[in-house]
Structures are given as structure tokens and as C-alpha cells.
Amino acid sequence: MRGIAIAFAAAALFGASTPACKRLLGELPPFQLAGLLYLGAALGTGGWLLRERGTRPAQRLDPANRARLAGAVALGGIAGPVLLLHGLRLALAGSVSLLLNLEIAATAALGAWFFREPLGARGWLAVGGIAVAGAIVSGDAGWPGLAAAALVAAACLCWGADNQLTARIDGITPARAAFWKGAVAGSVNGAIGLATSPLPTTPARAIAALAVGALAYGVSVALFISAAQQLGATRAQAIFASAPFIGAALSFALLGEPLGRASLAAAALFAASVALLLRARHEHPHAHQRLEHVHEHRHDDGHHLHEHAGLAPSARHTHWHVHEPQAHAHPHWPDLHHRHGHR
Prior knowledge:
Layout: H1 2-15, H2 17-24, H3 30-44, H4 46-51, H5 63-90, H6 93-99, H7 102-114, H8 120-140, H9 142-166, H10 174-196, H11 203-231, H12 233-240, H13 242-254, H14 261-278, E1 282-288, E2 291-297, E3 317-323, E4 326-332
Antiparallel strand pairs: 1-4, 2-3
């Protein structure tokens, strides 16, 4: 339940960013706005890093985890937001918000195809429903809607890969992963933006962009990574898919955008498909090999059997720890402790 609550909080923060970015695009081009958003994300994780002092991992990231982090930065931090902002320039913020549900389809499909996450017939039906709903939204807006949908779909594909990679990073906490993504991606996109044109906005608008990034791409990303490590990338993304509905509602309420029949029909199909995907879980006997890593955990979940004097089993905390070999059966999602695949 805590993982689900964390995922919803991340969704609320991220959902509000789409109408906010629509306003900011009036003065900032996509590369510069993307740079400011992700530099803000790095600033937004500063408090998390201070809380984690004394819980640093006992060793550096190994080559595999460094490659996962680099891929997440390149795809989710650099390419994804620029593609989204270019699409947002061409379409209404409400339509783009709903199209962001394509991210869950991309996350689920990539998880099944490349990371061997079990999805099943129900899951594939949900992915298909999400794709159809996206086609309804984009088709209703004509050619600009189709062009925007293509850009948003490409961004969602980048973020789907990012979700799968970050959910598999061991040896670095969610806040640190979000910090490095924000710092590197923000610097790269900001440098590209300044090289192509001077900064055309006021200091107040630049600060506003940094604030949006701190909340929507910093705190939100750190929360999502934490949820993905507890629930698995696909299921955490299923909950995070409430973000597009929040964004669409805010676009309608604050920007005065129309809410047509096609958007309402697509929203209903999106919601039904996400609910279907969220119900997909499985149970079977499985074995855990010896494992060393760091992440937030509690001691009453059946997997963390080490002891702490004076710490309640339900208390959540973060530190480097060791799992001894274990075999058992229980309903589970593909979280950090259940990366086994199925043929």
C-alpha cells in the first residue's frame, strides 16, 4: 500500500507539469525549457540527498548498473522531455496529457519483450486498449494532432525504456538516480538550447521553470523510482498513469481548453485499460539467490530478514544489506526481488 501511495503522489506532481509547461512554452523553446526543468529536478532532490547522508552504498556502481543509469539519463532525461515539449507545442495540453498514457503501454511492452516481465493476456489487452485510446485522441485533432501524437509516442517510448532501466538499478538510491538524471540531462539540453538561441525569458519565468522541474521531474521521479522498486516498473507505471488524467483536468480547469466527446471516450478507455493492467499479478514457487544492494525496505515483507536492535519490523529505512538464499511462494509483482522471467 505504501508503494501505491508513493506512485500516486508522483503522478499528481507529474500530471500538473503538462499545463504548466504549456504556459512556459510561450516564452521558452523546448531545449531551453527541458534544460531548466531537469536542472530544477536536480535541485528538487537535494533534500532527499541530505536525508540519505550516512546511508551511502558500500561500493561503487558496477558496469551493468552504470550502463543502466547512463541509458536512463540519455533516454528519459535528454531525449524524452524534448520530444514531449515539441509535441506540446502542436496540440492542446489536455490532449497531450491523455496521450501520456502511452508511456504505460511502452513500459509494459518493453518489459515483456526485453526484460522478461510476465504480462499475460489481460496485460496485453490493456496495452491494446491504451493504444486505441491514444489513436482516438490524436485522430480527433487532425494532422497537427497526429504529428503531436507521434512526438509524444516517441517520448513515451524513451520513458518506457527509462522506467525499465531505473527499476533495475541496484547500488544507488532513488534520490541519487533522479539527481544525476536531472543534473546531466539539464546541463546537456540547456547547453544545446543556449547554443541555438539566447535565453529569451525573464528571470521570474526561468525560476518558475526550475520550480516546475523540481516538483514534477525531481521529487516526482524520485518517488516513482521508489515505487517502481517496490512494485515493479509496469505496475508502478499503471498507478502513475493517473497523471495524464490530472493533467487533462487541470488543462480544462485552468487553461480553458475544450473537453470534447473524443477526449472523454478516450479517457474512459484509458482508465479501463489501466485498471485491467493493475490487476495483473501472479503466484508461483520461486527461489532468491544471494543478493547485496541498497533500497528502502521494511522487515515484515518476507524478504528482509536481517535484524536491527530497537527498530520495529514495519519501520521503513534505507541501507546497504545482504539477502541470503531463500525459496518461497506468494503473490508478487516484478519488483527488485522478483526479476525472474518466464518463458
